[in-house]
Specification:
- The protein has 79 residues and is mostly helical.
- Helix content is 72%, strand content 0%.
- The termini are far apart.
């Protein structure tokens, strides 16, 4: 039997910020630029880091954008 998984709002928030920070550091892209490109709100990640709430859909939009950017970069490196 599988043990229940406890996913807290804080864990989700931290995962989002960790992914964005790793991308930001690797690509020298600001949180503002990531936020604008992913969800058309340049202050989104800054607000999240200050504790603002967000929807699951907005979370997924940012994660999808990060995934797409990382896939594009990986493809470019392989060429």
């Amino acid at each position: 039997m599988n043990a229940p998984v406890d996913i807290s709002a804080e864990a989700v928030r931290q995962h989002l910020l960790d992914r964005a920070k790793a991308f930001s550091e690797r690509t020298k892209t600001s949180f503002s630029a990531i936020s604008q490109a992913a969800v058309a709100d340049s202050k989104f990640l800054a607000n999240v880091s200050r504790g603002s709430n967000f929807t699951v859909n907005t979370y997924q939009r940012v994660i999808n954008w990060l995934d797409e950017q990382e896939a594009t970069q990986s493809a470019g490196e392989a060429a």
